[in-house]
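Q: Here's a chain of 222 amino acids. Please give me its 3D structure as C-alpha cells.
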Amino acid sequence: MLEHQLYAFLGKTADAAFCVNEVGRVCFWSACAERSFGWSQKKALHNSCCALLQSRDTLGAPTLTRAFYARELSREPWGIPNFDLEVMTSCGRRMWIDLSSLLFEDSQTHQRLVAHLARDITKIKKQEELVNNMLLVFKQVKTVTSHANGTDFGRPAPIAPLSDKERRILQLFWRGNEAVQIAHDEKISLQTLRNHLHHINEKLGTHNRLQAIVHAMHRNLL
C-alpha cells in the first residue's frame, strides 16, 4: 500500500483518524478527527501531535511525543497496544480517548508512519470514576460504622460460594482495575469476563458490578 492509499482508506473510517511521522508531526488528519477534536486539517497538518492535542497518559505524563514516535517506528518487530489517553480539544475541553495504532511503511518510499484511530471514551471514564468514588465512600462508611458499633453489618443470608477465580476478579475490580486490564491479566476474553460477572451476580443475588462488590465487601469476601 502507498501513503495516499492509506489516507484514502482512513478517510472512510467512522473513527477519528490521523497519521504521525517519526518526528512526531501530523501528516494526515481526517474529517472525523476535525469533528472529534475541533482542530481543522489546516491547523493540524505538520504540527506537533503532542503540542496539538496536549496528550497525557493515565498517569498524567505527556505522550504522543517526538521521542514516542521515534522509538516506536524504529522498534522491531512493530506493535503498539491500545491505550487510553486524555487530550485537549480546540475549545479547551479535555476528553478521554481509546487509541488504536497501525504501523505503516510506504511500499515505494519506505516512509514509516503511525496511523491512529481514536474513540471518545469520556463517558466511560466518568462512569468508572463514579463507581470508584462510590466504593471509596462505602469503604469509609463501613470502617466508621464497624468501629463505632464494634460489629459489622450483621449476618447476611447464605449464598452459593464464589470460586477462587470469581473472588479474584471481584478483588481486581474493587482495587480499581478496568475490565480490559483484568481480562488481559487473567488471560481471558472480555466475553469470558462478562460471563464470570454474570455468575457472580447470580450467586450474590445482585444485578451489576457495583452491587456485587458492595455485597462481597459486606460478606468480607474482599
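Q: Can you summarize the key feature?
A: The chain has a mean pLDDT of 86.
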